[in-house]
Amino acid sequence: MKRLLNLFWYELKYAFRGIRKHLLLTLSAISAMAVSTLLIGCFLLIGLHVDHFATNVEQDMSVHVVLDSEVSDDDQIDAVEKEIQKLSNVASVRFSSKDEELELMIQEKGEAFSLYRGEENPLSHAFFVEVKDSSAIEKTAASIEKIDGVSSVAYGGSSVTRLVDLLDMVRKIGYGVAVLLLILSLYLIYNTIRTTIYSRQDEIKIMRTVGATNAFIRIPFEVQGILIGLIGALIPFLLIFFGYPVVYEQMDGVLFASVFSLVSVTQVRWLLGLAMLGCGLVIGILASLLAVGKSLKAKR
């Protein structure tokens, strides 16, 4: 156990020696890694919010079904409801009486419409229909409109479906850019490790001469790559960990409207923060393994 511990400290010391000896190159790699990871974090944050916004929009998407004025008794209303529920894309149906419809109109358009309360109410009964697949809401609305007893339907029109499609496109672009930045970070650390190995060719040859194994030679370079990846990821992690709560508080947790509510601080801190540190660790391991494996094999 003591031998393994001594070996561990030796390998760690050798790794830090490599970092110190090529400090400018290492700092350059860490800086580039930090910038790349920060950008990755920003795009992941955008993607996380786009997912959240899209879910909110889709949840708020429903078909407002207005019944004919002649449809007034319970049997007629139940018959229309059953026909709507038969449609495959319908998730739920909620009845809204003409008095409830009037109250909604008063909330949206002002107290002037309160004059129509009671017997003067000219509105009809209605349903609010939630759909399973928001992309098929237009087709579902068209099917509902054909049912006997239905006067009209409304669901926000094509503008709502275009918004959902736009959010989906933004999400895909954000994740695509994040992947490209991951590849760039991988290349930067890979290049740093390879340069370090090339600069220590004489040391490696001497170590091989005295019987050092490939693993013994390889581990310090791998540790160096992991440290670069972790340190580079730690800086943007701290920026988002402490910066996002400030932004969240300044905006009261909402962007433009309630449907665009921001993702909770806890979720961003731990989900996104750990993802960024994980990216730094994985990139550092992969880059160092690739660089060490290729370079040391070539030096045999």
UniProtKB/TrEMBL annotation:
Main localization, broad class: membrane
Organism superkingdom: Bacteria
Any Pfam family hit: FtsX
Domain FtsX extracellular: 62-153
Membrane topology according to the record: Multi-pass membrane protein
GO CC annotation: plasma membrane
Gene3D superfamilies associated with the record: 3.30.70.3040
GO terms under biological process: cell division
Record bears the keyword Isomerase: no
Segments traversing the membrane: 23-46, 173-190, 226-248, 268-292
Stretches assigned to the ABC3 transporter permease C-terminal domain: 177-297
InterPro entries the record matches: ABC3_permease_C, FtsX, FtsX_ECD, FtsX_firmicutes-type
Compartments reported by the entry: Cell membrane
Keywords attached to this entry: Cell cycle, Cell division, Cell membrane, Membrane, Transmembrane, Transmembrane helix
Record PANTHER family: CELL DIVISION PROTEIN FTSX
Family note: Belongs to the ABC-4 integral membrane protein family. FtsX subfamily.
Function: Part of the ABC transporter FtsEX involved in asymmetric cellular division facilitating the initiation of sporulation.
Protein name: Cell division protein FtsX
